[in-house]
Structure formats: structure tokens, C-alpha cells
Write a structure and sequence with these properties.
The complex is a heterotrimer.
Chain A (H helix, E strand, L loop, with lengths): L16 E10 L4 E8 L2 H6 L7 E6 L3 E6 L10 E6 L3 H8 L5 E8 L5 H4 L3 E7 L3 H13 L7 E7 L8 H8 L5 E6 L10 E2 L17 E6 L2 H13 L7 E4 L15 E2 L2 E2 H4 L2 E3 H5 L6
Chain B lengths: L1 E6 L3 H8 L4 E9 L2 E6 L18 H4 L3 E7 L4 E3 L7 E6 L1 H15 L5 H8 L1 E6 L23 E6 L2 E6 L2 H8 L5 E2 L4 H16 L10 H7 L5 H8 L5 H5 L6 E7 L6 E7 L20 H14 L15 H5 L6 H8 L7 H10 L1
Parallel strand pairs in B: 2-6, 6-7, 7-8
Antiparallel strand pairs in B: 1-9, 1-10, 2-3, 4-5, 4-12, 8-9, 11-12
Helix pairs in contact in B: 7-10, 8-10, 8-13
Chain C lengths: L5 E7 L5 H8 L1 H10 E6 L11 E7 L2 E3 H13 E7 L1 H5 L8 H12 L9 E5 L9 E3 L6 H12 L11 H7 L24 H4 L16 H10 L4 H9 L7 H11 L1
Classes of the chains: A alpha/beta, B alpha+beta, C alpha/beta.
Bound molecules: flavin-adenine dinucleotide, iron/sulfur cluster (SF4) (5 copies) and FE2/S2 (inorganic) cluster (FES).
Chain lengths: 286, 353, 259
């Protein structure tokens, strides 16, 4: 209790700001896209986030939950989220329509180390809902394209209808400065124009990788991590240049409620972005 | 540090003067072995002859249940109705240490205004104590206090030696300076030192606290944890009574017939089953043993990495509370390789029988 | 008139009707309840009941006759959301504590060979033995505060997040010194929270009337009580009293092990 409080945080870090759903539409059967704007213009402008961070979204009468920000700070104004119907809060969000009000606070958590990544080759591997946090950094890289080396994107989904934001990725494929490969485990539509097979099979398309100069960003369902990490390690990319995000139960986002603890690490403060090196040294995860 | 003396017979007078504009919280005896902190209306109810209260003073800062916001879709209005001017009298060194730890925790990176405001409005008037068979504070180095209090009263038979720990504490003394005597005699000092020496010798239990961080690391995979997990009732009591447990849950409580909600916050415990459950039915700590590992990592190894200090302050509450003998003492001893006579040890033998 | 209100039906199977009675006991809130919802059927309080499509059905009581099975299936078909309302509906209640064999013996003891005409009795079971249940609200009877919170959330379309916790949690909030530690057989650790730990508040042991809590450790409690000197049969009786069919598996396993 001595001296000046050095913390530069809002007076009440738990206080949600009313925010409006500007647009929402389904991405897959159980994932919806949300575009959100904080109602108070000043607060909307002062909401400065970086790639990899998350926000707490609340619905009156239902509760609050953490969601990765899918938009990029390089395009300010609207915040975008990809949200999967999973329980109480997400069910309530799915009931909401454009113009409805929700609560929003953040941004929280650490970020992808885009400064360290400058000048390097970047390999992004995403599956399922992993597209949510990784889209943010991908769009950031593309908006600052000249600052990075190769940008590679490998995206896998179970079926064509389950690939999040597939239209957006199709149009990204057109870009010459992005090596973009999309795959589905199984094509039940018969109209899928891209690869069929596991995302791990896409690695061979990347040609020679300069491991020391490459950062790899991975996010997807647990099963994907396992196999994708094997591939990445085969490429000899240093363990502290492999980045992943961890999901935990979160009730506060600011290191107070305790729920996100892994040993003495708080995922909401020290994460959600961790290096592979961090992760293999977490006792609880071994 | 300024030190003064107060005649015991003047204590209630002093408390009366200082508590005119604040709630005075002090220990009250509820049954032969049950003390709790309560708001005092009648000074004669104060009972200083106690070792530990059932719940620690954290309940005075952040009640087990309180509302954080009154919310409508257009506004979240913070609710600070749990905050008012308070004085806690009779709090022991272990609990003061716990508050200091909480101060750090709740201001780490983000400031929790619900704690901070309550804390800023609370004066801490510590009181000396005598260890019983469960006190472990000497092992955890929390048996004496250097900070975290405004006044600290040491009982020397007919007088109190009062340490003034802050300018707010000094202000209290100034409300009625004539009650206090600034001249400590050599005899007083002798008495004080002797008391301290004797108290240091009075501890019945000790643990090798320094070794615990390493032992937690080395024995992280030890079958000990399975034994503990087998016996743990997942009742959450150990967290609820622990002065440094801070976990909580949040719930939206809509008001019937209105379009608004109370956003309410209530204590939680990592020993409860759903603590680490996430959407999709996944639970990162489905096993009781995994949940106890988290509890004891916090208590014995490190709180959050930044403090580099374990959270246990040795108050002994988990020892008197856990129905199956899982507590800081038995766990530390077992980590240290000692066989302890506990229900959980006996239960594991029952299994192999 | 009631177009945008949720249609709700409250039904009673076999139980003491205490849970339904509890709703009527919410005097201060009763008007709000009736204002907020379109109560289509509630035999205890009104006569103009309609058995049509429902948004939510609260079902009280356990299933003890074939007729009730039919009734229940009909409710399930008509209701979008079915709530097991109270201990009997959730776990079967006191009447469900017997295994099938004991039930038959008991039935014979009491009713002899009498043939029932309008329906046949079956062994008491919780409603989820016959239909899918969306939500559970245990309690004997359900707690008022718990009910109102639950009801308000359900009306908002967001039933409370499932977060089971034992009676001990509230018991500690209430600063009771633990009865188990004094050798009194308290079932707090095994029992769902919601009563406000009312028994321990009065120095009486929890007897389990909210039913078993998820994530409990009956195994450890059993041996703890045994070690404290209680008779095995007495402990079994105590633990199974309100556990309905839900601890059956535990006792079954236990029986095997002790053989
Ligand atoms: C940093 C971070 C970023 C995230 N980003 C995204 C994102 O971009 N998009 C997205 O869709 N999601 C994201 N999530 C996940 C998202 O937060 C959860 O899906 C969300 O909490 C669901 O909230 P809910 O209220 O809808 O579900 P809840 O109602 O909270 O449902 C899940 C909870 O219910 C309980 N539960 C439900 N079923 C069971 C069961 N069978 N057994 C035990 N417990 C059960 C659990 O306690 C669990 O916590 C992210 C999570 C984190 C931590
Ligand atoms: S643990 Fe230490 S400080 Fe706390 S009551 Fe016991 S002797 Fe006093
Ligand atoms: S360790 Fe003891 S007090 Fe803590 S949850 Fe387990 S049984 Fe309860
Ligand atoms: S772990 Fe036990 S002894 Fe240590 S502070 Fe908590 S309750 Fe007190
Ligand atoms: S020990 Fe458990 S309940 Fe206590 S602060 Fe740590 S995680 Fe929270
Ligand atoms: S008295 Fe009963 S309910 Fe209370 S803590 Fe002890 S066992 Fe749990
Ligand atoms: S989410 Fe509350 S501590 Fe991390």
C-alpha cells in the first residue's frame, strides 16, 4: 500500500462496455461470425488491441465468456469474432440479432510477437476454430506485408462446409505474396476445388524451409496439435519459434478469478499465446 | 517505528472513540471452539482469547457473495455496497500476512477495485497471539509482522504495547492521545522480549517450508497425490477457510420481471469438480489429485510466479477444517518423506487390504 | 395476449407435492411469475389447465405407475424443455432407494396380492429413467431462492450454468465448525448445495435431502464414517436415504468389492 499505484488500467477492469452487434452471419452449422462496435465512440477508439489477444463478451441474463479477436488492429473500428455454439453464453449470443446490445471488455492476454517476427518467414497452421485467433495475425501480416519474409498458410477442416471463412480464404489464394493451401479431411460435396487429406500433408507443398528464420503459429483442436507439431519439429524450427494458444476456463480475464491457472501461470495474463518451449515445460501439461 | 502503551482498562474506551464512524470487526466467541469475526455492537462480546476464526478476514474485504454490477443492456453500474469504513481489531500476524499477500495479488497487473476499495477503507488493528497445536506460522515466517497493519497490540498482562504501523494508525492514537503513554520502561521492554522468546518456543508443529518448492517439483508425479485424491471429499472447505485463496466464480442473476441483472461474484475453490471445466465437456482437472496439486502448488511452491513466494501463511485453518486430514502440515510432512497418521493414509491401506 | 410469453406447465407425479407448493409459497414473486410466463397447466393452483405445446415443463415427483410413464412421455412430446423439478424427479427420492428385489418384497408386504385396476405400480425411478431431461433442479423441496434464480434464467432463455457444489461450500460461508470433525455423521460433502446449509447451521448433520452432488466422493465418506465408529448398515441407510437410484452404482460396486 506504499507509494503511487503504478497500474495503468481502467478503474474497473471488470466493467463491460455496451457494444452493438453490427453484423452477424453463420460460418458453419455451429459457428457464427460477429462484427461488433463499442457504442461509446471514444471508448471504441481507445480499444487498442494486438493480434492474439481476446475479449470478454457478456450477454445480459446469460453471463460472460472469453473470445479471441479475429479482426486485425491494422483495420481499426470494428471488432470481429468467430464464435462456436458451446454453452450458455454462446447459445444466447446465437439468439441475438444485428443491432442487439452485448457487453464487451478487454483486450486481454499477451500477443503474437509480431515485432520479433519481423523479417522472418511465417508459417500459419490452423484447423477448426483455430482460425479465430490466427485470422487476426494473418490479416496483420498481409497489411504489413513488406515487413515479413514468406507468409505460408495451411488450413484444414473436416469437411468443406466446416471450413471457417472459406470464401475469404479462397480470395486470399489469389494473392501472389501468400502461399495459401486449404484442405479438407473428406469432401462430401464433390465440389471442393482444393486439397483433400489431413493438414499435415500440406507441409510437403511448402518446399524448403529455413528453420532458423521461420516462426510457426499453430491453433486448432487438440488432436491437430499433436500431429502438426510433429511435422513442425521435423522441420527443425526452434521450439521457441513455435507459437500456440491455450484454452482454459476464464471468468475474469485479468488474473483474479484463478480459473485459468496452469500451476502458477495464469493463462489470461501470461497467455493465451505460448511458445512450444513454454508448453513442454508446464508440469501440468506433461 | 513509534511505540506506545495503553492500559488494558482503557481499551474499550479507545475502541469506542475510533469506531464512531466505522464498523468495528472483532473476534467473537460462538461456542467453545468457534470464533468468528463479527461487527461489534457490544464491546463486551469481543473475545481476544482465540487462536483462529473459522473464516479469515478476507470475508470482510470480499464477502463470499456480493454483487459486482447492476446491469442493463445499456449500462453496467458497479455496485460497491460491500465497501464502508471498517476497522478490524484483534487480527493475528498470520492473517495480516495473508492480507499483505492479497494486496499484492489483487493489484498485480490489474487492480481489483472491489478488493482495493474495501481495503483502502479498512484499518487493521493487529493483536498478539499464542500458538496452539496447529499454528505453523513460525515455519512459514509469518509469526511476526513488519508491515500491513495500522496498529498492533501486544498483550503484556495489564497493558498493551502498541506499535504504530502507519500514519492512519497514528491518527487513531491522536483522537485521544491522553490514553497512551509514550515512555516504555526497561521493564516493559524486558517483558516484551521475554514474551516473544517464549512464544517462539511454544510452537508445537513445524514444517520444512524452505524445502517445499523443490519437493513439490521433485514429487509432482509421486503416488502420494493419488492417495490424497482418493480421500479428498472435494468439499472446497480448505479453500474457503484459507486466508490466501482468492478464486471466484461469476454469475448473471437476472431480476424477475425486469430487464436487468445482478452480476454476482462468489468464492470458488480449485478442489471442486467443475473448477477447470470448459465448453465441450472437457475438464482439465477431472481427477481430485490434479486439483489438489494445484492447491498445494499455490500454497507450498509459488503463488503466481511473480511473487516468488508461496501463499501459505501457516494459520492452521486447513488443519482444523479438512475432514480427511489433507492439509498443509500432513502434505508437507509426507512430501518430506515422513509417514503421518492421517485418515487418507489409513484409507489407502484400506484399499490395498 | 400471451403471445411472447413462454408457455409453462407444472406437473406432479409421485411425491409429496412440496416442490409445487413451494412455487405458491413465493408470495412476493408469485405475481411476477404469472406475469412473466404463461402458466398453461398447474393443477395445484388453477383449474383451466390446457395440455398443449409447451416451452418448459417442470415435472415434480418420481415415476411409480405405468400411467405416469405415459403421462411423462406425453409431457416430453409437448415440451421443448423438460426440467426435473425437485429431488424425486431428479434422483427418484426416498421412494426410489430400494433395489428392484427389495422393492418387490416391500410391495408384497404392504399390498399383498391386490391387483390394481386403473394402472400398475412400477419401481420408483427418477424421470430421466424414461425420458431425456434437459435440466435438473434438486431439493426436498426445491429452495425458493434457487428456484427463483433458475426460473428467471430459464425465462431469459439461459438456464444457469451447471456448477455443482456440495453443501459444505455454503456451510463454510456460514462459518459452521464442521460436524464431521466432531464425529457427527454429516452428509454435506455428498449432497448438492442449495438449502443454505440449514441443518449444520443448527448443529444438525446434513441428511442429504438435496440429493447426491456430482463429483462427490462417497467412497471416502463411507470409510470416514466407518472409522468414526458407525455401523456399516447404518451408514448405507443414511447415504442411500435421499440418493434415490443415483448412488446405486456406488453401492453395487461396493457390494462386489466387499464380497
Ligand atoms: C483465450 C480464449 C479464447 C477463446 N476464443 C474463442 C473464440 O474465438 N471462439 C469461440 O467460439 N470460443 C473461444 N473460446 C472458448 C469459449 O470461451 C468457450 O467456448 C466459452 O466459454 C463458452 O461459453 P458458454 O457460456 O457458451 O459455455 P458454457 O455454458 O460455459 O459451457 C461450458 C461450461 O459448461 C460446463 N459444462 C458444460 N458441459 C459440461 C460437461 N459435460 N461436463 C462438465 N462441464 C460441462 C463447463 O463448466 C464449461 O465451463 C476461447 C477461450 C479462451 C480461453
Ligand atoms: S498461526 Fe501464528 S500468527 Fe496465526 S494465530 Fe497461530 S501463532 Fe498466531
Ligand atoms: S482437501 Fe479436505 S477440505 Fe479440501 S476439498 Fe478435499 S476434503 Fe475438502
Ligand atoms: S494453506 Fe492452510 S495453513 Fe496455509 S494459509 Fe491456507 S489455511 Fe492457513
Ligand atoms: S489454491 Fe486453488 S482456490 Fe486457492 S487460490 Fe489457488 S487455485 Fe484458487
Ligand atoms: S458440517 Fe457438514 S456440511 Fe458443514 S462442512 Fe462439515 S461436513 Fe460439510
Ligand atoms: S481468467 Fe480469471 S485469472 Fe485468468
Amino acid at each position: 500500500m506504499n507509494g503511487e499505484n503504478k497500474i495503468k488500467a481502467p478503474l474497473n477492469p471488470f466493467q463491460p462496455e455496451p457494444a452493438r452487434i453490427v453484423r452477424t452471419y453463420p460460418l458453419t452449422d455451429d459457428v457464427k461470425f460477429f462484427q461488433i462496435r463499442i457504442v461509446d465512440m471514444n471508448k471504441a477508439l481507445s480499444f487498442q488491441y494486438q493480434t492474439g489477444q481476446f475479449a470478454m463478451i457478456s450477454v445480459l441474463g446469460a453471463g460472460e465468456a472469453p473470445f479471441s479477436i479475429s479482426s486485425t488492429p491494422s483495420r481499426p473500428g470494428l471488432l470481429e469474432f468467430c464464435i462456436r455454439k458451446a454453452g450458455t453464453v454462446t447459445n444466447a449470443l446465437f439468439q441475438m440479432k444485428e443491432n442487439d446490445l452485448i457487453g464487451l471488455r478487454g483486450p486481454y492476454g499477451n500477443t503474437f510477437p509480431v515485432k520479433k517476427m519481423k523479417g522472418k518467414d511465417i508459417m500459419i497452421v490452423m484447423g477448426g476454430l483455430g482460425a479465430a485467433p490466427l485470422r487476426s495475425v494473418l490479416l496483420y501480416l498481409l497489411d504489413n506485408r513488406d515487413q515479413f519474409g514468406r507468409v505460408m498458410l495451411l488450413h484444414g477442416a473436416k469437411r468443406p462446409t466446416e471450413m471457417l471463412l472459406r470464401e475469404e480464404f479462397f480470395s486470399l489464394k489469389e494473392r501472389e505474396d501468400l502461399e495459401c493451401y486449404l484442405t479438407v479431411d473428406e469432401d462430401d460435396t464433390g465440389e471442393w476445388p482444393e486439397d483433400v487429406g489431413l493438414v499435415t500433408q500440406l507441409f510437403k507443398k511448402l518446399g524448403t524451409i529455413n528453420p532458423e528464420n521461420t516462426f510457426s503459429l499453430v491453433c486448432g483442436p487438440p488432436i491437430m496439435y499433436k500431429f502438426v507439431l510433429e511435422e513442425i519439429l521435423k522441420l527443425d524450427i526452434p521450439k521457441d519459434q513455435i507459437l500456440m494458444t491455450l484454452e482454459r476456463r476464464m471468468k475474469c480475464g485479468v488474473g483474479k478469478c484463478g480459473h485459468c491457472a496452469i500451476d502458477y501461470i495464469y493463462t489470461c495474463l501470461d497467455g493465451p499465446v505460448f511458445t512450444y518451449w513454454d508448453v513442454i515445460h508446464m508440469r501440468e501439461l506433461i | 517505528m513509534k511505540i506506545v502503551k495503553l492500559k488494558k482498562s482503557n481499551l474499550f474506551l479507545f475502541l469506542e472513540i475510533i469506531s464512531k464512524e466505522a464498523d468495528l470487526w472483532a473476534p467473537v466467541k460462538k461456542s467453545p471452539d468457534k470464533h468468528i469475526f463479527e461487527v461489534i455492537e457490544d464491546f463486551s462480546k469481543i473475545n481476544l482469547d482465540y487462536t483462529r476464526t473459522i473464516l479469515p478476514p478476507k470475508k470482510i474485504m470480499l464477502p463470499a457473495n456480493f454483487n459486482m454490477f447492476r446491469a442493463s443492456s445499456t449500462e453496467y453500474t458497479p455496485d460497491f455496497s460491500h465497501v464502508n469504513k471498517k476497522i478490524i481489531f484483534g487480527i493475528h500476524p498470520c492473517d495480516i500476512h495473508a492480507l499483505v499477500t492479497m494486496d499484492k495479488f489483487y493489484s498485480h497487473e490489474y487492480n481489483d477495485p472491489y478488493y482495493q476499495r474495501a481495503r483502502d477503507n479498512t484499518l487493521i488493528l493487529g493483536h498478539s497471539c499464542w500458538p496452539d497445536e496447529y499454528c505453523l506460522c513460525k515455519s512459514t515466517h509469518t509469526h511476526v509482522v513488519e508491515e500491513g497493519y495500522d496498529l498492533f497490540f501486544t498483550d503484556l498482562e495489564d497493558t498493551y504495547v502498541v506499535w504504530i504501523g502507519s500514519s492512519r494508525g497514528d491518527d487513531l492514537i491522536r483522537l485521544k492521545p491522553e490514553l497512551f503513554d509514550e515512555d516504555l520502561t526497561d521493564k516493559d521492554i524486558q517483558k516484551f522480549s521475554k514474551r516473544r522468546e517464549e512464544r517462539d518456543k511454544a510452537f508445537a508443529k513445524d514444517i520444512n517450508f524452505e524445502a517445499m518448492p523443490d519437493l513439490m517439483e521433485l514429487k509432482y508425479q509421486s503416488p502420494l497425490w493419488d492417495k490424497l485424491g482418493e480421500a479428498c471429499l472435494a468439499c472446497g472447505s480448505c479453500s474457503n477457510v484459507c486466508p490466501t485463496c482468492n478464486c471466484y466464480n461469476v454469475e448473471d442473476k437476472p431480476i424477475l420481471g425486469k430487464n436487468c441483472s445482478n452480476i454476482s461474484r462468489c468464492w470458488d475453490s480449485c478442489t471442486l469438480e467443475n473448477y477447470s471445466g470448459v465448453a465441450g465437456g472437457e475438464n482439465f482437472r477431472e481427477k481430485r489429485s490434479d486439483r489438489l496439486k494445484l492447491f498445494y502448488t499455490h500454497k507450498l511452491q509459488s503463488y503466481i510466479s511473480k511473487y516468488g513466494k508461496p501463499a501459505c501463511v501457516g494459520c492452521g485453518r486447513c488443519i482444523v477444517t479438512c475432514p480427511v486430514d489433507i492439509n498443509v502440515y500432513t502434505v508437507s510432512k509426507s512430501l518430506d518423506g515422513e509417514e503421518v497418521d492421517t485418515f487418507w493414509n489409513r484409507l489407502s491401506k484400506e484399499v490395498t487390504k | 395476449m400471451n403471445k411472447d410469453k413462454l408457455k409453462i406447465g407444472i406437473y406432479e407425479l409421485t411425491g409429496c407435492a412440496g416442490c409445487a407448493l413451494l412455487i405458491t409459497d413465493c408470495e412476493m414473486e408469485l405475481i411476477d411469475i404469472f406475469n412473466a410466463a404463461d402458466i398453461q397447466s398447474f393443477l395445484m393452483v388453477k383449474s383451466d389447465n390446457i395440455d398443449g405445446e409447451l416451452d418448459i415443463a417442470l415435472v415434480e415427483g418420481s415415476v411409480t405407475t405405468e400411467k405416469e410413464i405415459e403421462e411423462l412421455k406425453d409431457i416430453r412430446e409437448r415440451a421443448k424443455v423438460v426440467v426435473a423439478f425437485g429431488l424425486c424427479a431428479s434422483v427418484g427420492g426416498i421412494q426410489a432407494r430400494f433395489g428392484n428385489k427389495e422393492w418387490k418384497e416391500n410391495y408384497k408386504k404392504i399390498y399383498g396380492d391386490i391387483e390394481m385396476t386403473h394402472t400398475r405400480a412400477v419401481q420408483s425411478k427418477p424421470i430421466d429413467a424414461y425420458i431425456d431431461v434437459d435440466l435438473y433442479l434438486p431439493g426436498c423441496p426445491v429452495g425458493k431462492e434457487q428456484f427463483l434464480h433458475f426460473f428467471t434464467r430459464v425465462l431469459k432463455g439461459s438456464p444457469p450454468e451447471k456448477y455443482p457444489r456440495p453443501v459444505c461450500v455454503t456451510c463454510k460461508y456460514n462459518e459452521n465448525d464442521c460436524l464431521l470433525n466432531k464425529g457427527i455423521p454429516c452428509l454435506g460433502p455428498l449432497t448438492a448445495d442449495g438449502c443454505g446449509s440449514i441443518c449444520p447451521n443448527y448443529n444438525l448433520p446434513c441428511t442429504g435431502c438435496w440429493g447426491p452432488v456430482e463429483g462427490a466422493n462417497p467412497y471416502s465418506e463411507f470409510f470416514l464414517l466407518k472409522e468414526k465408529g458407525f455401523d456399516i448398515e447404518a451408514i448405507k441407510k443414511l447415504m442411500s436415504n435421499y440418493a434415490g437410484t443415483k448412488l446405486a452404482e456406488f453401492f453395487e460396486q461396493f457390494r462386489k468389492e466387499s464380497k
